[in-house]
Amino acid sequence: MSRWEFVGRTDELNRLLAAVTGEVGRGLFFSGSAGIGKSRLLREGVAALPTDRFAIWSIAASATTAALPFGGLVQVLPAEQPQGLSPAGVLRWALNVLQQQAAGRRIVLAIDDAHLLDPPSAALVHLVARAENATVVGTLRDGEQIPLPIRALWTDDLVEHVELTPMRQEETTNLLAAILGGPVDAGSADRLGRLSAGNPLLLRELVHAASGSAELKRTYGIWKWTGRLELAPNLTDLIDTRVGKLTDGVRAVVELVAFGEPLGLHLLRQAADQSDVETAEERGLITVVQHDRRTNVRLAHPLYGEVMRRRCPVSRTRRLQAHLAELLEQVGKRRRDDLLRVAVWRLDSGTAQNAALLLDAAVQAFTRYDVPLATRLARAALNADGGSDAAELLATILMFADRPEEAIEVLDAVPPAAGDERRLCRWLTVRAMVSYWGLSRQSTVEEIAGSVEQLTDSADRSRVHAFEAIMRLHRLDTATAVRLSQQVLDRPAAGVAARELARSTIAYVQAAQGELSRSGTAIAQVHSAAANWRTDMPYLQLALELARGTRLMLTGDLAGIDAIVADEFADLAGEGDFRLGTGYLAILQAYAARMRGQSDAALRTSLGACAVLATSRVYAGLAQAERAQSAALRGDAAQAAAAMAEADRTHAPGMAVLYPWLEQARAGALAASGDVPGAAKQLSELVDRLRSDGFAGHEVHALHDLVRLDQAGLPVGPTCSDGGRRTVAQRLAELSERVDGALPPLLARHARAAATDSPTDLLAVADDYAALELTVYAAEATSQAVQRLRRQHSPAATDARERLAGLLGRCELIRTPALQAGAPQLTEREWQVARLAAHGASSRAIAERLYLSARTVENHLQRIYTKLGVTGRAELWAALRSIPGHDGGDAG
């Protein structure tokens, strides 16, 4: 990590280059805070300038040379100056020296930290900027005194003056990936980006500190930061320089905000002297922001808080936190957030004695999916004699923190009292949840089914039945799952959480069975009731997302997937380390990217899902299956096979309901390895199983995978009364009338067009796929049309190849069997000849370039035309661009 790759800042770099190379030749100065990337941007811009056109002098001003006349330009001017010249004469002499050395080229003077220039140097820079054949570019640091000649550069309209803003989150993520040599987990990148506030220098020090303390770890190729920050000396020195020396009063202000941010301005004024608050704001240590109807105070930079909190003595830390809690309790906890803030301050200050307060705060933290904080508060509530309620909550949270063994111990240590049915009900359901999903004990289903007889209350029985139903769903006992769920919905006494959990179970089954409209209605009902169930059962969100995500994937609704990946739950789950939530959403995101042909993003995101879910078996197999699909899309057979092996190893038996996705991925991996017959056999067996299970929603997609392998005429299913079997195309036509949505009829049209060898219909289907952003399907259908047109020697093949090239141009690397089947097999020499010919090279030029005879080149071209189905060079460019993995653009 000695030198960081230059990433991002594209607009700023282009603006700098335009300022130098444009017709006007007006200069440009960037200003910004220390470490924001001004110097690196200037160096990269200057390095990109051609030295045959520009005479470039780079100057790094410093405090050392600021007191010496022309000290800032000591790297530019001759060591000996003429004697007896007036100050103006010296300036003219210096300008003449630069012009002589430029030898007719345009002068470019690049000054880093121009605010540190001595007065004569600053005057010379101003004089150079006025010259017709010169441009001045440079950097300035915010908050520094700027020499008047430099300030006059933009007031006299000689240069532009631009404030360099912090790097965007996307740029920060790309920079992290570049320096670490691989992608970074989205949550880790976001936290590091926010902590550095988009400052590359601070980001570098954060990564150095994290790497040095082994807090950055790589899993499945994805870097993940634990979140624990080590304050390395370099990082501390940087912050000390920015903060400077503080009076006791100002330090108290900064410390209060460090421990309480966002802190209401009215509370800060009660806790500290008003003049100290104003001084802290004037010095840029704190900032006052308006949020809703509150005026809050935050630290000007997140790292200020890290340093202040680490350096504050324990006794003063506890006193400040207790004081903050007292202040907020005195004015009243007016907002929902206030309860959580008081509880955390009480806990951290050692003054937490109210178990009810801690328990309520733990519930609130869990409803925000902040697993680490909820764990702390729930454990504190249990230790403060919170009883079985605290034990139940803590065990639940530990389950979602991938610590099921500890969760069981907590539950068994506080069993419900005899005769207390409400507590028994909750204890049974939480223990069953931990046992089934956390410990993968299949016998749990029968155990919870038998335990319901211990309960007499209808609401309690409904809650247990709702849990049993979703377990049976995941175990693939769908008929019983639906029956139990319907019983829960039919009971007026059933609680809201139990009813919506049951409705989520039914919604999933409806989606799998192809009743996508009814599934959507049920999902909307669960979502609309969220305010009534989230406090009681926050993890119900997972059941909702599983049903909703399954429905969206089966309907091909990529925009819907984008929406749920971007909604509040995704943000909360990422912030709070709720891994099952973030992992599943990453699987959905990878699926959407794959369908759009964004293979790089799909593989990267699926690897991220594998990394997040590595310690949990609930969705681990599903994540590996999506990774296999993403690798297969790229033609990476080795990685696809490795991912399927991991999927088989990590897939939990209790998640059997996910088998359609895994088996489709298995077929994709086989096809990527070249075993198309094996893939077709795998899909045929999957179709039979899905038909037997009644999963028509999944069956249409397995059948369509056969169409993608050009197996639309393959017989599938049982023997019919006429002694024959339905073909893939016929079965899809049947299902298109039963399965909801616009996608099944489109898949059926694709199958019919492939079975009847209709290029026109295939191209029409491709257009409809493209309208839905299903770009991979669109490209494959177009490729199938190209194959048929080529066999028919149709002149329409040229237009079809152009359309295929356009679709492939919207994708990253994709190499599926459907695309490869239509790709002509050219030898390496033929590829070389074809690329050069596509670029307009004559036969003679090609012969000279490749050391061949002109006759040999002509023979190669004739074979190429035949293989590509083109009649001459005019069609060659489109033909090459329509071949996956080749864009025709590399003539070398």
Defining key terms:
single chain, alpha/beta, Rossmann fold, Arc Repressor Mutant, subunit A, 3-stranded antiparallel beta sheet, 46 helices, 12 strands, 7% strand
Question: What does the secondary structure layout of this molecule look like, with pairings?
Answer:
Elements: H1 10-21, E1 27-32, H2 38-47, E2 54-60, H3 87-102, E3 106-112, H4 119-130, E4 134-141, H5 148-155, E5 159-163, H6 169-180, H7 186-196, H8 200-212, E6 216-219, E7 222-225, H9 233-243, H10 248-260, E8 263-264, H11 265-271, H12 274-282, E9 286-291, E10 294-299, H13 302-311, H14 314-331, H15 336-349, H16 355-367, H17 371-383, H18 387-400, H19 404-413, H20 421-438, H21 444-451, H22 458-474, H23 478-490, H24 496-512, H25 516-528, H26 530-533, H27 540-555, H28 558-565, H29 568-575, H30 579-595, H31 599-612, H32 620-633, H33 637-650, H34 659-672, H35 676-693, H36 696-708, E11 715-719, E12 725-727, H37 728-736, H38 743-755, H39 759-771, H40 775-791, H41 797-809, H42 817-821, H43 828-838, H44 843-850, H45 854-868, H46 876-881
Parallel strand pairs: 1-4, 1-5, 2-3, 3-4
Antiparallel strand pairs: 6-7, 8-10, 9-10, 11-12
Helix pairs in contact: 1-2, 3-4, 4-5, 6-7, 7-8, 10-12, 10-13, 10-14, 14-15, 15-16, 16-17, 16-18, 17-18, 18-19, 18-20, 19-20, 20-21, 20-22, 22-23, 22-24, 23-24, 24-25, 24-27, 25-27, 27-30, 28-30, 29-30, 30-31, 30-32, 31-32, 32-33, 32-34, 33-34, 34-35, 35-36, 36-37, 36-38, 37-38, 38-39, 39-40, ...
Domain HTH luxR-type: 819-884
Organism: Micromonospora tarensis
Protein name: LuxR family transcriptional regulator
